[in-house]
Design goal:
alpha+beta; Immunoglobulin-like; five-stranded antiparallel sheet; three-stranded mixed sheet; 12 helices; globular
């Protein structure tokens, strides 16, 4: 009887709590591992108060003088009051703690495709979250009490805080990510950034690559063994998770050699105009290391033949980025000798150091070279 009364009180308490707005700290109660990963993710650091790159761009944007922050749709969608123009941009709790909250992603019902930018359409059903589980695909799990053995045993099914809908196809093909991460057009009708995803690949998508299954239960009520990684962060994350999507091979001739770079990802690598990818090659011979000329992969935008800020750009001035599934051969007119070690590093700068200097971004996290893939060839 005592246990039954405790159960009733639990149900009443959780139902009352469910009427409140769910915040990430609420999600933490059942999903501590995911919450801790989120704390180090770009979704947690998307606002101008956490992302110095976004702030540097916003500080120079003409809309700042008008106090007209239009970036909220993707950078701070959890701040509904700002999006609905009920308040102006301020360092409130949402901006500081959960600009892209758990609810933001898990309540996306569908994506509307538009030329300027895609739009996330959110469900109007209260406390209903979408998720992916191949074993439960198609199910809609509503919290309820389940009895067995003629009512002698009681168990609960689902979450007391929210319903779970496993039927949303956008969470299986990762289209849920493309409301913000697909493309962006400026006011002049020019596409500032286009990741150019090849959607014909059903086995490889945003979620399978950037949110792979890792050890640890996604919920603390029972052990699921694994969960989808929620800490994607281009600044601090280890490239080891993604390096398998770049293949580097060597072709050697008598007086020269070539490196073949193959992009095995289903989208363009580092298409953002602030990024800079670099191929660094050096030869170690008799303990002496000789660097060769660096090869850069960059997308420069501008107008009238000159680089400009994104909002002024009207054309692509230069684009050497690696496209989806592209193989690129880079030739070096250098002779390799027996026992040479060819050290190859493919990596990136989050912000091109030249652009960072103009934007006054001094934090070395954003300008340092991050090795994405390293390979050493020993010449026989």
């Amino acid at each position: 009887m005592k246990l039954f009364l405790l159960f009733i009180l639990f149900i009443i308490g959780t139902n009352l709590y469910a009427e409140q707005i769910l915040q990430n700290t609420t999600c933490k109660r059942c999903h501590p591992k995911i919450f801790n990963e989120y704390q180090n993710s770009m979704h947690h650091k998307a606002s101008i108060y956490k992302d110095p790159i976004h702030k540097a761009i916003w500080d120079r944007h003409p809309d700042k003088k008008k106090d007209n922050y239009k970036c909220a749709k993707c950078h701070t969608p959890a701040d509904k009051a700002l999006i609905n123009k009920q308040i102006k941009l301020t360092p409130n709790k949402t901006q500081l703690n959960e600009p892209i909250s758990c609810q933001t992603c898990h309540q996306i019902k569908s994506i509307e495709k538009h030329a300027k930018a895609n739009i996330n359409i959110y469900t109007t059903k209260k406390k209903t979250f979408f998720s992916k589980d191949l074993k439960r695909k198609g199910e809609k799990l509503i919290f309820h009490d389940k009895t067995s053995f003629f009512g002698l045993f009681h168990t609960t099914v689902g979450s007391p805080y929210h319903n779970i809908d496993y039927s949303n196809e956008n969470f299986y093909n990762a289209n849920v990510c493309l409301g913000c991460h697909d493309h962006k057009q400026n006011e002049k009708g020019f596409v500032v950034c286009d990741i150019q995803i090849k959607q014909n690949d059903t086995k490889q998508n945003c979620i399978s690559c950037h949110m792979p299954k890792i050890k640890g239960s996604f919920v603390n009520q029972h052990d699921t063994k694994k969960h989808a990684y929620h800490g994607s962060n281009i600044v601090t994350a280890s490239p080891a998770m993604l390096e398998k999507y770049i293949k580097i091979s060597l072709q050697k001739d008598q007086n020269k050699f070539s490196l073949i770079l193959e992009n095995k990802a289903n989208h363009t690598l580092f298409p953002h105009p602030l990024r800079l990818a670099v191929l660094k090659v050096s030869i170690q011979r008799n303990r002496k290391i000789t660097p060769l000329k660096e090869h850069k992969f960059v997308r420069i935008i501008g107008t009238d033949g000159k680089p400009t800020p994104p909002w002024l750009a009207t054309t692509i001035l230069k684009d050497t980025t690696l496209k989806a599934y592209e193989k690129r051969e880079i030739t070096y007119n250098t002779k390799l000798e027996k026992k040479d070690q060819l050290i190859v590093k493919f990596g990136y700068h989050i912000v091109n150091p030249k652009i960072a200097k103009k934007l006054n971004i001094k934090d070395t996290h954003y300008t340092k070279f991050i090795t994405f893939k390293k390979k050493v060839f020993t010449i026989k």
